[in-house]
Amino acid sequence: MRPVLLATIRRITMAKLNKLAKVNENISLNRYDNGFMIEVSGRDKKEEWKTAKVMCNTEEELIAVVKEWVAMELDN
Q1: pLDDT, tens digit (0-9, with 9 covering 90-100), for 13-54
Q2: Distance from C-alpha of 22 to C-alpha of 51, rounded to nearest angstrom
Q3: How many whole angstroms from its chain centre is CA 40?
Q4: CA–CA distances in Å: residue 27 to residues 3, 13, 24, 58, 63
């Protein structure tokens, strides 16, 4: 795969919480037989309440979503 295409794929797959502009202070984490589900609530660009439910197959994916949540602006 070409490096530019690979970088684009990584950038797209890393933005799991892209429907949220601001996030709440808490998250919900569920562990299942086949992976994890993380639930993050917040507000979108129109200031409407939204919830993102993300299925993660590995711990690495889960950690990436948590890091994305930590880096986002809080809705206080």
Answers
A1: 457 899 999 999 999 999 999 999 999 999 999 999 999 999
A2: 11
A3: 7
A4: 34, 20, 8, 18, 13
